[in-house]
Amino acid sequence: MGTKGEQTKQLICSKAYRLFAEKGYKETTMQDICESTNLSRGGLYRHYGSTEQIFLEILSALMKDQQNEFSGKIQCGESAAKILDDALTRYEHEMLDSENSLSVAIYEFFSSPHISKSDNSIFYQYLASKKMWTELIEYGVQTGEFQDVDPEAVFDLIIFSYQGVRMYSRLMNIDKKLPQNITGQIKRLLLFKKEDIK
């Protein structure tokens, strides 16, 4: 597919992302996406056959971005504490940004009866996140910046706290201090106190 076709696909996914975040997966239709992108039905169907196809492409792109988030920084020798701080600061903003959260749409999609129980996309996303975070935590332990913790347990604390707040932020008002409380506790688990460093 040429550059114009790729640009059109990016436009479709960008506009569809906003619709899925705003309306959820179940309430977003191909007609909604046509109206949002100003494409005809034929123009949209030339690229995607269903909202399911579009949604899976969006999730795939998010997962690909996530897989590459830490590895380049680690290879360049960036401080583990700095990588952690940058990631948790972004998580704080995302936890409060309910308008751009796909959490409800993801729940709707994967709990839908027409999705095969053998479709493990969400589990693969979880495993990809675990690999990325485990690599960072092990790197921080090796550099002496992080305490010797169980990387998988800390990852579960991070991911389920993050996703839980993102889900709840769509259903109720979240205190602005909540994300900082969570990320602050994660930092306390991982980072040495200044008086411990000699």
UniProtKB/TrEMBL annotation:
The keyword Plastid does not apply. PROSITE patterns: HTH_TETR_2 (PS50977). InterPro entries: Homeodomain-like_sf, HTH_TetR, Tet_transcr_reg_TetR-rel_C_sf, YfiR_C. Keywords: DNA-binding, Transcription, Transcription regulation. This is TetR/AcrR family transcriptional regulator. The lineage of its organism: Bacteria, Bacillati, Bacillota, Clostridia, Lachnospirales. The keyword Transcription regulation applies. Residues 29-48 bind DNA. GO terms for molecular function: DNA binding. Gene3D superfamilies: Homeodomain-like (1.10.10.60), Tetracycline Repressor, domain 2 (1.10.357.10). It holds the Pfam family TetR_C_17. It comes from the Bacteria. Residues 6-66 form the HTH tetR-type domain.
